[in-house]
Amino acid sequence: MNKVLLVGSPNSGKSSLFNRLTGLSQKVANFPGITVDVTSGSLLALPDVELVDFPGTYSLQAISAEEEVAVEYFRRALADPEVRHVLCVVDATRLEKSLYFTLQVIRDAQHHGKLITVLANMADIIDRNNLTLDADALAAEIGAPVLMVSAKSGSGIESIIDRLRDALVREEVSGGRWSETPDALLRGTAHQLAHQHGPRGDVLIQSQTRLDRFFLSGFTGGVAFFGIMLLLFQSIFTWSAPVMDAVEALVGAVGSVVVPLIENTVIADFVADALFGGIGAFLVFVPQIFVLTFIIGLLEDSGYLARAALICHRPLRLFGMTGKSFIPMLSGVACAIPAIYAARSVDSQRQRLMTYLAIPLMPCSARLPVYALLIATFIPDETMFGGLLGWQGVAMFSIYFLGMLMGLIVTGITHRISRVVADDLPFVLELPPYRLPGLLPILRNAEKRCRHFVTKAGKVILSVTIVVWILGYFPNYGADLATSWLGTIGHFIEPVFEPIGLDWRYGVAIISSFLAREVFVGTLGTIFGIEDAEDNMAPLVDQIQASGLPIGSGVALLVFFAIALQCVSTLAILSRETRSWKIPLRMAAAYLVLAYMSALGVFYLVEWLV
């Protein structure tokens, strides 16, 4: 099968062209560092031709992880005899930015005897602003055809197909004027050619500068940043909530229809609690992932996300992260799963790892039922300052703040003790032009991200759910959780929790919460003989208070849940993103020890004060 390579610099519209030419849902973003995979698809007009889309790069001298991927695969592909042509996409409105990379690509393609065509994208913007790009003169200078195209409007697509159809029947060429030219000379030539033949971009620069005066200034920029982040936060919590409830209700409704049809009690319990419970445990996150991916896609495509990263970079760099870490950390307040996906935007592998370290410590929404139960049990429902503040509200704020603070402390300490890392990159951020987002590619990417979560992480989550169900159901067939295998494990680990005043019941609830943090409440309700404790906590609060659990133990539990790594879903996604179980398991162990030691210290401090 004939292959055509598609390369280009970030924000040049390369992936949009890929979508136009193949119809596939490749990621489109206006924020550097998003695409990290090499994707391929057959051309719609030439089904026997495979188009291979590489990550956007600024140069063939790679400095970031995704550039290394692009350069490695590109140079390997040039040696492939099935590769017949190279398409290099440039941003026609910012020719100088793209032309150096283009000349490098032409040089390497000529060295391997491959034909190349340069696609000057954004032709619609050039025409709309009455700008000019002398494509014929530029083509004569660089020794390769230059086609004016627009991925957004679709203009020029037919000329690309005609060029490929003609080129595929031609023999490979040998040599060329650039085949032995060093990078230093190419850089100077690119600057000269862009100045001679490129558009005068004063109009575009002035328009972008006016918007940047608003979005990056001290006051208006801060107000806009706060408003946009509030919109993002509300989208995760509010907009996805009805769909999450609907998914949970649908899974429950299907289960209520299927389970009564099963005569065997054990199998019926397994299907109801393990299968449908496990499926619901990860399907309920899908709306959040979709909404978050969609909103972030809008911010990326519009060009604002790069500005948000610039605003946040200075404070976050003190803790070993980058401005691009802010969105993943903010997303983690709703759920760690979409937040970990969002961390793909961080260029440096080291800074991405720092972001992964911080995300699980963000106070996710699944912890809220645990916090609500413990605060209602141990913190008096009284007010201060004339009723302006309540002690329970202050406690909730404090535990949320503790999680965020611990995230920064952990990454800051890790940053200090591991300063010399070859992978660490300087914070270099291109501020792309402001553009109207393309909704269809963003919707496609959100759907793709959800499908990836269900098919990849869902298997792990469901497997762990089944294991925990087996431990809690046997050998007494669910008659008594205290005498089940899970209860036996709780009794076994009871000495671990005795120093903070907790018995086996809380140990079992903590183990169960590994499935999802809110399961802690339901498990305690089951142990105390209270049904539907998640929906009505008052009887469970009374039971815990009557059991004589010390207030130090309650506060210690709050601290423990604020620091301990989140659920199995978090581990599954971390393993997928890092492509290894080593990092998430080490994180889980480290945060478990940190959570336990912190809870122990808080327990003795509260008991001493009380």
From TrEMBL:
UniProt superkingdom: Bacteria
TM segment ranges: 214-237, 243-262, 274-299, 325-343, 355-379, 391-410, 453-474, 555-575, 587-606
Pfam families assigned to the protein according to its UniProt record, in alphabetical order: FeoB_C, FeoB_N, Gate
Residue ranges constituting the FeoB-type G domain according to the UniProt record: 1-170
GO CC annotation: plasma membrane
PROSITE patterns with a match to the protein in the record: G_FEOB (PS51711)
Keywords: Membrane, Transmembrane, Transmembrane helix
GO molecular function annotations of the record: ferrous iron transmembrane transporter activity; GTP binding
Keyword Repeat: no
Protein name, entry field: Ferrous iron transport protein B
Species this protein is from: Luminiphilus syltensis NOR5-1B
